[in-house]
Amino acid sequence: MGRALTDGRILLEACVDSVDSALAAQEGGAGRIELCDDLLEGGTTPSAGMIAACKERLEIPVFVMIRPRGGDFLYSDSELDVMKRDVTIARDLGADGVVFGLLLSDGSVDTERTAELVQAAGPMAVTFHRAFDVSRDAAEALEALIELGIDRVLTSGQAPSVPQGIRVISRLVEQARGRIGILPGGGVDELSVQRVVVATGVREVHVRGTTVLPSPMDYRNPGIDFGGRATAPADDSREVTDPARIRHMVEILRRQD
Hints:
Oligomer: single chain
Structural class: alpha/beta
Strand order of the largest sheet: 7-6-5-4-3-2-1-8
């Protein structure tokens, strides 16, 4: 199944957007992190400084999101060039894996450009992210990713959340037959993680596990809000990884080993 990074236990991957959240995920028992920036856009490429700081301080593997912008997954030549450069930077900084996803305008996997990024990744593990969930045909896309040598695919089963996509995820696991890892992600929490593992037979899950942290600022200007969107958190709070939530899910998964 490619370059797996697990000791046989069901592995919990935590999606994080800061060094502090990465350390919290490790404290809670996560086996790996997916390191992103701008999770309000679904995750974009973190800075070189963020990657370096996480690699210096963490003992668990760090997978780096390679996504130059929010929005769709149809990229221009200049955006592909940026992605190649970011893959190289991540590799040079010691990242254990990279996470990306590219589609063509017809909704199929962009196999040519994906192959270029896989080659650039060298020895690092490669995850194809939830661009998979907006591809035109899940079975077709999965075979394309297997042919490309992708290690795992992050998916909600082409549904708004993993609990809603369990049946599709189960079919993908059967189709994969160990040729590629299936990593359920999107809406997995303490209430659903056990059901997801039992129903699908997966050996890895992807979670957020966050809590809202109030800002420690004493002074706040009520006339300014940098949130920018109705869906963004207020400037006086932010979401951070909660080690207790991660630990709870890890304990649930260990009971399934």
